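Lab notebook, bench 4. We co-purified these components, and the gel suggests they stay together. Before we commit to crystallization screens, I want a quick structural picture of the whole thing.
Request: model the full complex, all chains together.
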Amino acid sequence: MREVNQLSLFGLDLSGLYRRAKLGVQQILWGEEVGLRAWFSPEVNYCHLSELESPASSDTAPSAESFQVLLPESEVLVATMKLPASAEIFLAEAVTAHVESHTPFAWDETCWGSKIVERREGSILIAIIIVARSTADAAASLARRALTADDTPFGLSAEAGGAVVTLDGYQNPALDAPYLGNLRQFALRSAVAVSGMAFLAAIPVIWSFQTAQQYSAMLAATEQRSEGVVVVRGALVEAQERVSEAERFFSEHVSYRPWLHKVAAATPDSVYLNRLSIKENVLTVSGLAVNAADYQAAMVEAGSFSEVTAPAAFTLDNRASRERFTLTMTLTPEGAR
Amino acid sequence: MRAWFEQLPTEARWVIGATLGGLVILVMTALLKVSASLLDSLQQSGRYEPRIARMLGYEATAQELQVAAQAFSRALDGLAYPRADDANATGARLQQTLRGFAEEAGLTVVGSQLAVSAAQDIDDQEKEVGLFDQLAVELSLDGPPIALDAFLVAVSQHSPALATVSIDIQRKRRSRRDDDETPDFLTVRLRVVALRVTA
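Here is the predicted assembly.
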């Protein structure tokens, strides 16, 4: 029962896990609960050993692909054993020990078979058949003779508690060949179908990838071809931007010459200008006038200026007999036209 | 299906569950990878397509672009000094030109000063930051109004364009020796600005 195992990870013994995984695979492949074997395996032909002994039946028997030859109940010792379901990984060892303790034959003369016949509430019920090796050999010889074609595979088994239990060591490996062949074919077909679906799913991806590659190559070629034009366009954009900014700058700074002419035209001969300054669009004039208020009114009426104001009061210059004034005004865009 | 699964031996359930789980993870990973790849390729194509179309558009209008670039380059030459010239050298040349205009117009140049404002020094609010240096020449001139007019005409006709950003005109005081027939003389201070394309 004890087993030395090298399977470990960070000090954890993984042998139990490995045995359970292996048992799970066996249950799927060979167990009746999953139903895989029942689905893919051809129907099993059973015949009693007594049927093979009569000459009439030996002529008709070989028509089937394979046989399970049932041993007579009188030649078989049937036993049952109950185990916890968790101990199923040690089933072979437990059955061997059970047979060893229950066989009426010498150990070398004993052959046996077992089968789980029931699973219930965390335990398993196992049916065990024990047969004398000489009996099994005689049955096998008889079955081999009885079957017309020698290569017809057969196995020995016996009925135990309503179930057919196969005898270990007396099963032709070719018995499982149709099942394994069908299973292999199904797996192959499934793989082909999955591959086909994967290929179908990959078609749009391949197509879009190739398109992207083509676009990439086309872009590189186009960029290389139109390198000169791109440089010209870059220069154009830069020049446009600069021209636009320069025009904005010069449009904000009006030419003063027309404004000087407008001031001269709007100023009567009786007004003497001592100082005139323009900064941005604000014009400031100061000088002497017979009537500074009249001059202010004249500037307003000229229409080219807005916000004509006098920041200081007009004062009379006695020496010049004229009013001293300072006027500020804004140059209007309408006036520029 | 559930009843079938539940009646299976524990180990078989584990193996089937692990296999199905692994398959689902594998399929999901593959689907995600395929979707990501598909999306990436489509995005790539989506990015390239307009760029190629733009390039082809450039190629188709290469002649027009060339002509337009030349036209704007000429227009820019009329608005700003080229970047090839050094800013200080250009400013000095501008100052010489303005002094020449003043003298030709009949004004006496009393003083002049050049100030070069690099693009990065100009107020951030002004959009020409990074596009132009400003070459400002401050001039002090004496002369009759008619000469000032002629000077302003010369300034307005100069290429590249010049902007007079401020002007201050004062009547020069007459001396006692001047009679009434002596024409008025003005003292003028003005600031003229030119633009220079930055590198």
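Chain A touches chain B through 64 residues (CB under 8 Å). Worth comparing against the SEC data before the next meeting. Residues 1-41 of chain A form one domain.
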